[in-house]
Amino acid sequence: MNTLTNKLAVITGGNSGIGYATAQEFIASGAQVIITGRNKQAVNEAAATLSNHTIGVVSDAAVISDIKQITETVKSLNKPLDILFINAGVAAFSPVEQITEEHFDYITDINYKGALFTLQQCIPLLSDHASVIFLTSVNATSGMANTAVYAASKAALHAVVKVAANELSSRGIRVNAVSPGPINTPLFGKVGLDEAAIQGFAHAMQNSIPLKRFGGANEVSKLVTFLASDDAKFITGAEFVIDGGVNVNRIL
Ligand SMILES: NC(=O)c1ccc[n+]([C@@H]2O[C@H](COP(=O)([O-])OP(=O)(O)OC[C@H]3O[C@@H](n4cnc5c(N)ncnc54)[C@H](OP(=O)(O)O)[C@@H]3O)[C@@H](O)[C@H]2O)c1
Description:
Strand order of the largest sheet: 3-2-1-4-5-6-9
CATH class: Alpha Beta
Oligomer: single chain
Strand content: 15-25%
Low-confidence stretches: none
Order of helices and strands: EHEHEHEHEHHEEHEHE
Distance between the termini: 40 Å
Largest sheet: 7 strands, parallel
Mean pLDDT: 96
Helix content: 40-55%
Number of domains: 1
Radius of gyration: 17 Å
Shape: globular
Number of strands: 9
CATH superfamily: NAD(P)-binding Rossmann-like Domain
Bound molecules: NADP nicotinamide-adenine-dinucleotide phosphate
């Protein structure tokens, strides 16, 4: 369905996983898409594979001055920005006792600082009635061991979503969070564990998910696409959990 026809969208972290799947879904729904990422080759290859009209922008979310690459690209198209999907993020794990400043800064600079300033810098470019979606995580509230910094970075975004939804409501701009449980993406291969540890972790996690499987990036992308569309025009300041029931299985 062409629910996003004539809309311009920015997806941060659009060269992989949930961001890439959402770019596919946005394009199939009629939007023009700008994707970002840190790695020039990965960004350019993803943009070229997505469609002729997709624009790839190299912009490191942890570097505030890099956000200018996004805003300048939007300005060059002479169109307001209708959809901002702030998705770029990293995960890394550490028990609280062993958290280092480097671990804290690495995750916080990308997941929290980068996400907040991406919204801030894009606000002047947003169309009235635009939709902003932050990709958060059920880890924000689940208390899973070894996730203190990651969980806090996503919990911080839940606070930002509510405040920004309030502040931007006068322009009709909606701000929401999509909060996934375990989703099958390349993320798990990037957390510094070896293949056997990843498989063990995935197996244990899968068994504790009521629906007994990881979600697909294409399932998250459909929820994001709904929130991006005018069908969701009365929804703002809300968090949407998509987790196969992890959220209701706390006894385990
Ligand atoms: N997979 C899950 O189970 C899960 C669950 C809950 C929430 N999430 C969240 O979902 C979001 C997307 O993750 P994913 O699972 O789709 O993982 P992914 O496949 O690793 O995708 C993450 C994307 O973010 C980009 N990115 C990372 N750091 C960046 C930076 N500093 N600047 C710009 N782009 C950057 C990555 O680019 P590079 O490849 O160049 O690093 C990649 O395009 C993240 O915010 C993650 O925290 C994932």
